[in-house]
């Protein structure tokens, strides 16, 4: 299995983290975004969106971090990580959507604007991100995990850009239940870290 | 079954469209966004994000349009609309993600800025939306449907804000395969329309 990857991408880290938790071996293929390698023709053959991560599982190509999480959970993780019953699967999906909305267009864009000089409105992004954190805080105040009694890909999808939020100028001190959840994720067997989040 | 709904919301329309295609009866509960009803305490009890749509299926509450599509497909639609095999499910998920990214933060935001005076950068949104349309065009140039040999919730998730794109100042003439796909969706048995897209 190959992962087209960048060390500092929170979306790529979602995949590395789930692989760590599931004990999946894979080869990392670094893509140099600063050099525009993700917009070169060879890479667009792998992913027409020109984005990382992309997974190559024995010739089967999957792009998009949420889609790769779904693939790995279904193929290698079993129902713990993505339950099949309609209500439980929909609950996981709710948090995958939060990860793609408030967290990606809020927290991750605020970080990209501050750290990588992307042209996003930082105040607008931070406000959007804090709305997502409030929803997480409310859920986690009375529950250990986002989508059921045990960790699922919902937690894996939300964790990276929440834990990286301070790099975008969004502090987490006012979200104590979120901070406790971060510690629970870090304590999972097989956990791996990334720069800005804490070492393995 | 009750759907908390607004007539002009493309995200709500995704649910109405799938219900039409699946032959599901439901009651519409209109939420007045102009009056801020979605941010009132009573509504936040249903959805902490303060957004429509929300589905109430005999007391089971599901928020988020993608999550509701997943719920309805799993509970009432069978594998045609959301296949369970890992590669096929991940393929559907890829397009659900495109719908939540380029289409929602591109096309839908461009429409919201133009039609409802929301504070988004219209040029930035249109550019983001066109990137999504290019990816759709590439897929649909050689395939009738987005995620397999038949329509799935991938098509339902992407269709509304694509069909509404001209309301946001993004014309579709340069995307002929997308226009042909729009016609295929309109021809599905049980299809329903919405204002700006075409009548039932």
Automatic annotation (TrEMBL), chains A, B:
InterPro entries reported in the protein's UniProt record: Glutathione-S-Trfase_C-like (IPR010987), Glutathione-S-Trfase_C_sf (IPR036282), Glutathione_S-Trfase (IPR040079), Glutathione_S-Trfase_N (IPR004045), GST_C (IPR004046), Thioredoxin-like_sf (IPR036249)
Domain of life the protein comes from: Bacteria
Domain GST C-terminal: 85-200
UniProt signal peptide: none
Residue ranges annotated for the GST N-terminal domain, each copy included: 1-80
Pfam families tied to this protein: GST_C (PF00043), GST_N_3 (PF13417)
Transmembrane domains' residue ranges: none
CDD domains assigned: GST_N_4
Protein name: Glutathione S-transferase family protein
Provenance organism: Methylomonas aurea
